[in-house]
Amino acid sequence: MYFYIVDDEKAVRSMLAQIIEDEDLGEVIGEAEDGLSLEQQMLILKNIDILFIDLLMPIQDGIKTIRQIKPSFKGKIIMVSQVESKELIAEAYSLGVEYYIIKPINRIEVLTVVRKVIERIRLEKSIKNIQESLNTVLKLDSNSSVQEKYRNEKHLNTFNHFQNSIHFLLSELGIASESGSKDLMDMLDYLYKYEQDNTLEQGFPSLKEIFMNLAQKKLGDSAEDTELKRFIEASKQRIRRAIYQSLDHLASLGLTDFLNPKFENYASRFFDFTTVRRKMTELNNEPTLPARIDTKKFIQVLYFEAKRIHLELR
């Protein structure tokens, strides 16, 4: 893997480069101390797999830089910053940042995050290769009956396999037995069928739309507004309790063993690092701000992770 590091602190750049080299994660192709310098390196950036970039820099900050390079940069972005502003972190994620690392740099956290990003890059490449190979095979035989048979067989098995992936993932997150797990299953089933008829290029349907569709399906078209609202509110509460239980479960694993595979695999994907850290502090009976969850993000990640597992197990 090829890396590029942008940070106005030389010590941070050196530390990240040292971690990458010591752990044989790849090669650091270049460094810059501000975003403006990065824009002048677009030819190099085209070959970069992972870009580390600081949020706050004196000449041009990370957010503005990402906006300007994003149309042509196809690699993954990891943002590093000592800023814990919820709004800035949310903006970074909305621009396509994979992970957000809070300074001071923690070696174990950097290793965990980079390995997850490398895993995702390799998975995306594998899926792309499979799709290209499949398209080639289908083009070799223009007989429509062969293609139709393939589509029918695929449709017959795919949905059941997807549900098995959801069950597995809920178990990994420690919430398979929670009452809200059934609501989460229903939501992911809805999203799966939604994606068959639409695309997610324009984004996910709103939570309000999902909850309303599930309520109408459960209660019927003749249900009154008060019944629908009561059903939706109860479902929301069950889901929030399940998400908090998942956070509690993962944070407990991390307290026991920071290198626990489940903690490594899921904590930073489903929750912001700040949220996980606050929950771990809370479990240690130390004073901290309450951990806040993002229901929409959790459901979106749950859906994509279930799809990823489904593809791996097929």
Write the layout of secondary structure elements.
Layout: E1 2-6, H1 10-22, E2 27-32, H2 35-39, H3 42-45, E3 50-54, H4 62-69, E4 76-81, H5 86-94, E5 99-102, H6 107-140, H7 144-172, H8 180-197, H9 207-219, H10 225-256, H11 261-270, H12 273-283, H13 295-313
Parallel strand pairs: 1-2, 1-3, 3-4, 4-5
Helix pairs in contact: 7-8, 7-13, 8-10, 9-10, 10-11, 10-12
Structural notes for this entry:
The chain has 314 residues and is an alpha/beta fold. It has two domains: 2-119, Rossmann fold; 145-313, no CATH class. Helix content is 65%, strand content 8%. It has helices at 10-22, 35-39, 42-45, 62-69, 86-94, 107-140, 144-172, 180-197, 207-219, 225-256, 261-270, 273-283, 295-313; strands at residues 2-6, 27-32, 50-54, 76-81, 99-102. A five-stranded parallel sheet has the order 2-1-3-4-5, sandwiched between helices. Helix 1 (10-22) links the parallel strand 1 (2-6) and strand 2. Helix 8 (180-197) packs across helix 10 (225-256), helix 9 crosses helix 10 and helix 10 (225-256) crosses helix 11.
